[in-house]
UniProtKB/TrEMBL annotation:
Coiled coil: none annotated. It comes from Acidovorax kalamii. InterPro entries: NUDIX_hydrolase-like_dom_sf (IPR015797), NUDIX_hydrolase_dom (IPR000086), NudJ (IPR033713). GO terms for molecular function: nucleoside diphosphate phosphatase activity; ribonucleoside triphosphate phosphatase activity; thiamine diphosphate phosphatase activity. Residues 4-137 form the Nudix hydrolase domain. This is Phosphatase NudJ. Its cofactor is Mg(2+).
Length: 162
């Protein structure tokens, strides 16, 4: 049987406060880029748990997802290696919690920053992914779905329960 194609599963958080959105500036092979707090789904966790973990690792803030904004597919080719990659992103809105200023930000994260929607729209060349703007526009349009749409079977988080 030929190799089975599998997209990389990622999560992202859209966090708004006073009309500004929390982003991270991160080092990439293409230079400094802006992104939502985001990252890969790890083994043994649900997308909701992954989103809370990634926000904490990248911004040093607690985060509680409250709604699914959408599920997105994105494909691109890495500039250095030519690798053809597809990502499936689960984007969540939620509540920002305590800031833990003693925490070190995740490797590659240079800083966090708060930008308005217009400031984000004005710099698409700095976006890590076109999904940054697409998720933002869906959020601003009021797109929200209940978290119950993202079901994680207990066999994922508790393998002994199989």
């Amino acid at each position: 049987m030929p190799h089975r194609w599998k997209p990389n599963v990622t999560v992202a958080a859209l966090i708004e406060r006073d009309g500004r959105f929390l982003l991270v500036e991160e080092e990439t092979t293409d230079g400094l880029k802006l992104n939502n707090p985001a990252g890969h789904l790890d083994p043994g966790e649900s997308p909701i748990q992954a989103c809370a973990r990634e926000v904490l690792e990248e911004t040093a803030h607690d985060f509680e997802p409250t709604a699914l904004i959408g599920v997105y597919l994105n494909r691109f080719t890495k500039t250095r290696t030519g690798d053809d990659l597809t990502y499936m992103r689960f984007a969540f809105a939620g509540t920002l919690g305590t800031h833990h200023d003693w925490r070190t930000l995740d490797t590659g994260i240079v800083r966090t920053l708060w930008l308005t929607a217009d400031e984000i729209r004005a710099c698409p060349e700095r976006h890590r992914s076109p999904l940054l703007l697409r998720c933002l526009e869906d959020y601003l349009a009021g797109q929200r779905f209940p978290l119950t749409l993202v079901h994680t079977d207990i066999s994922v988080t508790e393998p002994s329960a199989q």
